[in-house]
Amino acid sequence: MAVQPEGTPCWADAMFGDVEGAKSFYGDVLGWTFGDASSEYGNYTQAYVDGKAVAAVVPPMPGQEGQSQWCLYLASPDATATAAKIRENGGQVLMEPMQVGDFGTMCLASEPSGAVFGVWQGGTHEGFEAAGVPGAYAWAEVFTREPAKADGFFPAVFPYSAQGMDDPGVDYRVYNVGENTVLGRMEMGDEFPPEVPSYVNVYFSVDNCDDAVARATKLGGVLRFGPMDSPFGRFAALSDPQGALFSVIDMTTTQGEMPRMTDV
Question: What's the CA gap between 123 and 142, in Å, rounded?
């Protein structure tokens, strides 16, 4: 897959205190195989589906130990310029743009309500080599308690247009790049414990949602929500044994009509 248009999700990785445990868990739940750890880059280890790179796991760097979480990277043609826009629009740059060999340039940031995300300026590593197939990235949503902050930030930093769902009971938006819907934004309600901060929820595709949930919970994962049918697929939200939140979705099993969306 070529370098994605600016603002398009292009990669996902996560830090784990127990990398071998994470490899075992996601290998069983999502069918991942793993390459060799790259000692030159902090033992960064890529995950593969049918030989195509779909994500990566890495041990924490000294001083970065803490809650494991997935990080979604958004494509940028110029990570330094994107970092400047992040600051100008109320976000924080948590890690300055850093060149990673000839693979590309990365940056870590948070939007004004606190959800952490990455920026990736692709070099030889252009991002996902597969998406939408079982085991690969499928979708992502920004979960936030302050949706107005996210809605002001993302279209100012990335070339997004936005649409809102025509449902008075749900505050949900999508961000589009051209004709392509690339990211969702969901308001966090009372069902989220107050200690859960804003975050980006990454969905991985599976061929059977219920089977994936069964495998995950058998291995120590926790079911947070679902499984639930939707017009987009049957999905469930989970946390892995090290606390990282993620979702699985079977996009072939759909139910109901697509919601109406209005430009905002």
Answer: 26
Could you tell me whether strands 137-144 and 180-187 are parallel, antiparallel, or unpaired per DSSP bridges?
parallel
How many whole angstroms separate alpha carbon 158 and alpha carbon 180?
A: 14
What contacts 63, CB < 8 A, 6 or more positions away?
A: none
Peptide bond into 227 cis (omega under 30): yes
Beta bridge partners of 95: 108
Structure-token pair, residue 144 = 């936030």
Any idea how long the chain is? 264
**Going by C-beta distance under 8 Å and a sequence separation of 6 or more, which residues neighbour residue 252?**
207, 233
Cα–Cα dist 8/103, whole Å = 18
The pLDDT tens digits of the residues spanning 109-166 come to 999 999 999 999 999 999 999 988 999 999 999 999 999 999 999 999 999 999 999 9
Contacts of 258 (CB under 8 A, 6+ apart): 231, 232
